[in-house]
Design a protein that fits this description.
By secondary structure, this protein is α+β, with helices and mostly antiparallel strands. It is 37% helix and 26% strand. The radius of gyration is 15 Å and the shape is globular.
Amino acid sequence: MERLDVRRAARRLHTRLDQPPDPLLAKFFAQITEKDLLAPGGEIHVIASNTADLRALVQHALDHGLSPRIDHLHDWQDGVLTFLFRITHDTPRTGGRR
């Protein structure tokens, strides 16, 4: 029985999911802000690796008035970095539909 290499499987998964994430995340951030779905003090967490277009991810969040921050960084020691982004709204929101 072959042993599963969790790191290799995670890298493959990240590569598949991260290329290209831009339209999906742009639409997601747009819906969150347009429908005012983020509760006051709420956070969105997004995981992406350096195989993704991280600049575009951050820019999409900023374009929709959101504040992305790197909450955690994991270095796989093979050139792949995985980022956990914490995304919040700068201004207090009411949350939910009006």
